[in-house]
Specification:
Elements: E1 11-15, H1 20-33, H2 40-52, E2 62-63, E3 66-67, E4 76-86, E5 96-103, H3 109-122, H4 126-134, H5 138-157, E6 163-169, H6 175-191, E7 194-201, E8 204-206, H7 211-216, E9 219-224, E10 237-241, H8 243-248, H9 250-260, E11 262-263, H10 278-315, H11 325-357, H12 362-372, H13 375-379, E12 387-389, E13 395-397, H14 398-401, H15 407-427, H16 438-457, H17 459-479, H18 483-497, H19 502-518, H20 521-530, H21 532-543, H22 552-563, H23 571-577, H24 579-598, E14 602-603, H25 611-615, E15 619-620, H26 627-656, H27 661-682
Parallel strand pairs: 1-4, 2-5, 3-5, 6-7, 6-9, 9-10
Antiparallel strand pairs: 4-5, 7-8, 10-11, 12-13, 14-15
Helix pairs in contact: 1-2, 4-5, 10-11, 11-12, 11-15, 12-15, 12-16, 17-18, 18-19, 18-20, 18-24, 19-20, 20-24, 21-22, 21-24, 21-26, 23-24, 24-26
């Protein structure tokens, strides 16, 4: 135990309190009386703010609320034993009776982690908890600490120290991947656990787990949104959550892993890892896996195509195979980009199937998605005599109405092939002599032909026609007077809802699917919206440094990643400030998307946005001119400015319960006052 932080006059037994709020107020009052803090209300707020990041209620009736604020005079611990249990949102869902409140100086980070780790590990020891529960006096409480301290410490360092290894991975392999790792490492440090996390992101495997790491681990913790190879964890206890859950409640999920993990075996039935809400989440997980492999292809194709088109428009030249000199070179670059466009959807379909059933499903899904994206080639000569109503009301051949499936084809064939191959691998009884040729001959050849024939002559034409009419309807809306403004507003609102989550992905990949159809008009709206939440929150911490003094590092991270178009970097603000951050995220992302739509900005890089793509000429106007970069940056800037203003006002309302005329004025004087204080201190 840290010296001088716990004494008899900081122990309070059989106190009658009814709510968590009353507990915080009682502890804060006692801390003020004892000279531990200089501001009673500030400590109450500190405790409440910590609870917004995740519950401090443990199990068996224990809680460890803690606060680090500038008004603390000295680090201390206050213990309260309640007369009766109260509700607290604990890990086991049971009420709380025994409370260790940790009050630590703001600048003592090492001491804070040390104290929190010690208390957390004590609460893993049944003898310690039993000693506290059976204590009748303040002396009993102190004796429990002093007599048990060495034993708890020794057990923590030896047999009771929990060893965890794991993997973090998100669909894009950027923000969530590394943020989840950091959250779990910090949570492990707080709990006194030994944790090692491997990341599988855009850089590949980092912080790689060794065989010895895995062998010694008590639990394998998977914080992943995509499928990962689990064969090396055969025989180990595995627990799986999404990266978002790991970010929101890292300590709680680590605790849950011990109780809810299960032994993984490497047989065929366990190759696909399922989670809670299996049918819904596993499908999303497979879709995200396929999309993550597609992103590098669409980034290459989109940026290259945009740069070439912009240069050609500026020079007023037409790129053809018969061109000469630099124009011929630009034509070749454009052809290179077309290769990326031609295979990117097939890559997505292939790796959706791979996520479900492994390598054997890659070839069939790839080939079938390519078929779905070349309707003219597939159905040429079959349906030319069948007439349907065209765009202008005249009767036209069905072949002219059918459209490429784009992302729909990747989803249809990725899922259907993946689950079919999984069914074959797990349900069919295949002779041992046939098994070796199943993944290299039988499945790639016969399964591909089977699906191709069914697709061509049954539901394929119907889906092709339906998508053709869908594209026609969307284009009609985009070309209407206020059509693009409405499209931009809707895409922007969706983009700001969950910062890289499923709803954000619907907007992202829906706009991506439209790139071949509308030239990127929908994508331009979504791309402008992606950066608003992180940039708005990040810049707010720089402008209002007094209000957001504890969020400096979060603000820098959010600003840098916001420039890169990574929406996920706004998540910590949504976790901490909840509706005060989420409301401006949604509204102001919608504003940015709406303005980009009004300017007819075209985004040429699918599933990505932010100022970074403008720097690389990834946006133009509808005519392909680089003036679109200016309109794009204006749309982002207006959205961010609105976000900063709204976010700051809502934080004021959240902290004080209302906003008066005087407090409204003080918001915008805050930065001026800060600068004045700096000048005076220099003088």
């Amino acid at each position: 135990m840290e010296k001088n932080i716990f004494s008899k006059n900081q122990i309070f037994l059989d106190i009658k309190l009814n709510t968590q709020k009353e507990v915080f107020e009682f502890i804060s009052a006692k801390a003020f009386e004892l000279g531990i803090v200089s501001n009673q209300e500030a400590l109450v707020t500190g405790f409440k703010n910590r609870e917004t990041e995740g519950t401090t209620g443990f199990e068996d009736g224990f809680a460890i609320p803690h606060a680090r604020i500038k008004e603390i005079n000295k680090s201390a611990c206050i213990f309260v034993k309640l007369e009766k249990e109260i509700e607290w949102d604990s890990l086991d869902g049971k009420p709380i009776k025994y409370i260790f409140a940790l009050i630590v100086l703001e600048n003592e980070n090492d001491k804070y982690l040390s104290i929190l780790s010690e208390f957390s590990t004590k609460l893993l020891n049944e003898e310690f908890k039993l000693g506290i529960k059976n204590s009748k006096s303040k002396t009993d409480i102190l004796d429990t600490f002093e007599l048990k301290s060495q034993k708890v410490k020794n057990e923590n360092l030896t047999k009771n120290k929990i060893r965890v290894v794991g993997i973090s991975a998100c669909p894009t392999g950027v923000a969530h991947t590394y943020m989840a790792r950091e959250a779990l490492l910090k949570a492990g440090q707080n709990l006194g656990w030994d944790i090692k996390m491997e990341t599988q992101g855009q850089k590949g495997q980092e912080f790689k787990l060794t065989e010895e790491d895995i062998k010694q681990a008590d639990i394998v913790f998977l914080a992943v949104d995509i499928s990962v190879d689990k064969s090396r964890f055969n025989g180990k206890k595995i627990y799986h959550v999404s990266t978002k859950k790991a970010l929101r409640n890292a300590e709680q999920e680590l605790q849950n892993s011990i109780k809810e993990g299960f032994i993984f075996t490497n047989d065929s039935k366990n190759k696909t890892f399922d989670v809670k809400n299996k049918n819904k989440q596993s499908i999303v997980q497979h879709l995200m896996a396929g999309i993550s492999y597609m992103i590098p292809f669409i980034v290459f194709a989109g940026l290259t195509s945009a740069i070439v088109a912009g240069i050609a428009n500026a020079a007023k030249v037409t790129l053809t195979a018969d061109s000469t000199g630099w124009i011929k070179f630009m034509w070749h670059l454009n052809e290179f980009s077309n290769i990326g466009f031609s295979v990117m959807m097939a890559i997505a379909g292939a790796y959706i199937a791979n996520s479900i059933a492994g390598r054997a499903a890659i070839a069939p899904a790839f080939i079938l998605t390519m078929i779905g994206n070349n309707p003219g080639l597939v159905w040429q000569g079959y349906f030319q005599n069948i007439l349907v109503e065209g765009q202008n009301g005249s009767m036209v051949s069905i072949n002219s109405v059918m459209q490429p499936l784009n992302i729909f084809g990747a989803i249809i064939f990725g899922l259907s092939v993946g689950y079919t191959v999984q069914w074959i691998n797990t349900k069919w009884k295949i002779h041992q002599y046939i098994q070796p040729i199943m993944p290299i001959i039988i499945i790639p050849v016969f399964l591909t032909l089977f699906f191709a024939i069914i697709w061509m002559f049954t539901f394929g034409p119907l889906i092709g026609i339906a998508i053709g009419y869908l594209y026609t309807g969307i284009l009609s809306l985009e070309n209407a007077g206020v059509g693009m403004i409405l499209v931009g507003l809707v895409l922007g609102l969706l983009s700001g809802v969950d910062m890289g989550g499923p709803i954000n992905k619907i907007a992202s990949f829906g706009a991506t699917a439209m790139i071949p159809v509308d030239g990127g008009l929908a994508m331009g709206c979504a791309a402008a919206a992606f950066a608003v939440a992180p940039l708005g929150a990040g810049i707010s911490t720089m402008l209002f440094r007094t209000t957001f003094k504890e969020d400096k590092e979060l603000g820098i991270n959010a600003t840098v990643l916001g420039v890169m178009g990574v929406s996920e970097s706004a998540i910590p603000f949504a976790i901490k400030y909840k509706w005060a951050a989420i409301i401006p995220n949604i509204i102001c992302s919608g504003i940015a998307g709406m303005i980009a739509g009004a300017f007819m900005v075209q985004g040429h890089v699918g599933a990505w946005g932010g100022p970074i793509i403008a720097i690389f000429a990834g946006v133009t106007d509808k005519s392909g001119n680089f003036i679109g970069i200016l309109w794009y940056l204006i749309a982002i800037s207006i959205g961010v400015i609105c976000h900063i203003i709204l976010f700051r006002i809502l934080v004021e309302i959240q902290s004080k319960g209302k906003i008066s005329k005087d407090s409204f004025k003080s918001i915008f004087k805050e930065n001026k006052k800060l600068n004045t204080n700096k000048k005076n201190s220099k003088a």
